[in-house]
Structures are given as structure tokens and as C-alpha cells.
Design a protein that fits this description.
Elements (H helix, E strand, L loop, with lengths): L10 H10 L12 E2 L2 H11 L6 E5 L5 H7 L4 E5 L6 H7 L6 E4 L8 H7 L7 E6 L5 H9 L7 E7 H7 L10 H7 L2 E9 L4 E2 L6 E8 L10 H11 L7 H9 L3 H13 L13 H14 L3
Length: about 300
Amino acid sequence: MTQNRLSISDPIRTNDIMRKYKLRAKKSLGQNFLTSEKVLDDIVDASQLQPDEIAIEIGPGIGALTEKLAQVAEHVYAFEIDENLIPVLHDTLSYYDNIDVINQDILDVDLDKFVKDHDLEGKTIKVVANLPYYITTPIMLNLINSDYPFKALVLMMQKEVAQRITAKPGHREYGSLTIGVQTRMATRIDRIVGKNSFIPRPKVDSAVVVLERLDHENEGITDLKYFNKLIRSAFAQKRKSLMNNLLNWQGRNDDTRAKLKQVFTDCGIEDNARAEQLSIEQFKKMATELQATFKK
């Protein structure tokens, strides 16, 4: 049934759909329609979706990725914020009976309640999406920190953001976002996607990132709120040393400096170290030591 039609991602069909519905990509919503079937197939492959698994998509656009997901997953729930695209999606995806298109901002969705309301508890759920650049980080963090433990997130995003969340200690992109993600998820870049794969063409390249839930997320963090305060403070001014940033946080005086120097020594950290040089494990140990020291 589907073999004799051009895929939605085919540039000819994409342009036909856009002409038929007089569509223009909305810059305000970060809309760029993916027109590379190879990239779409790679995204689905990276998700390792199985026939008994559920896919949640964010920002389906005109349905190019949605179509690919529906051919593999048991069911696809596609959240689209642009109400003008809802009738388009109902048309382009009319051949599939395992897709629900939902006109709602994913940031307004109680994901745990959504899972319960749709009888998805116990199902393996993966989020697969081509995210708008302007709101990538809030959506990603909302998914990671939601009550429902999604098995994996396969997200296409701006290459620069992908490099930040997959960075290693010592890399210039390593920062608070890196740590906020990597304490809960294993991260890797699956592939780089050139700007020519989209209509309209964005100004920068993209990357497909795979994030998989760690078996023991936040392991070694005894007080998550305090740990997050440490991370924010440590990277508050990246050009300053870690010591200077922590003095700004704890109080710039001789007593505080002496206590910090002792914590640095206990954690095996040089006095002139910068935050981007520390591993996540070192930050975990430092958080425990700092909290004990400054409660005395």
C-alpha cells in the first residue's frame, strides 16, 4: 500500500505538500522540514525501535519522520504545536492507523499522566524527534527530568548543542549542561546532518544524538539540589578558576578560602583548576565534601 507512493521526505513530495497547503516554514517555531530519506532512516535505526515499542515524536512538521516511525513502532504519538499543520498531518499520514497527532506543546504535557491515561505503563517508550533549535534545551531537560523513565531519546538538534551534551572533561564545550544531562543519561552523537538536508536550509549543521537512561542515574549524588547549586556556581564564570567561582558562592574571605583549599586537597584537585577540567565523579565527591565542610 505504501510502496507506490513517494515518501513524505522526498523533496518532490515535500514541495507538493507545501504548495497544496500554501505552507511556509515558520521561523518563530524553528520549522525546518527534513527532506533526506537516508537521514530519516538513520534516525529510526539509531532509535532501535521494536514492533512492540511506543514512539513519541515532537514537532512532526508535515510527517516525514512520523511516517518512518509508524512503519516500525507499535504506535506513534506526535505532538505538534502548530495548529495549521494538524489537517496537513491528518492528510499525509492518513494511510496509517497507528498514529495519534496531538495539537499540544510538549512542555505543557504532564508526561507521567499522559502515559497513564493512554495505558502505556509497562511499555518501552522512546522519544524520537527533530527538535526546533530555539527550544531544544528546555524540551530535552523536561524529558530527562520527567517522572516517566523514557528508555531512550533520539534527538536531532543544533550541532553545537549536541557537542555540549556529549562533551568530555577538558573540552571547551564541557559545562553545566553536560553534567546535568550526563548524570542521568549516557550520550553519544550518532551522525552529523548537513544543512542541505532541510527545507528551508538552516544556517548551521545539525546532529542526531542518542541519550539512553543510565541504570543508576544520579548515582553518588547524596543531595541533588546541593549538587546542582555546585555545578551552577562552578561554571558561573568560565574564564575564572574553580576556586574563584566557589569563593563567589560560599563567601570571599580567608576562612572560606582555607576550607575550600582543604576540600580541593581531599578531592585531588589543583588550586588553580578550572571547572571544565573536573570529571563528573570529582564533582560528586566535591559536593559531598563541601556540604560536610560548610555545615560545620
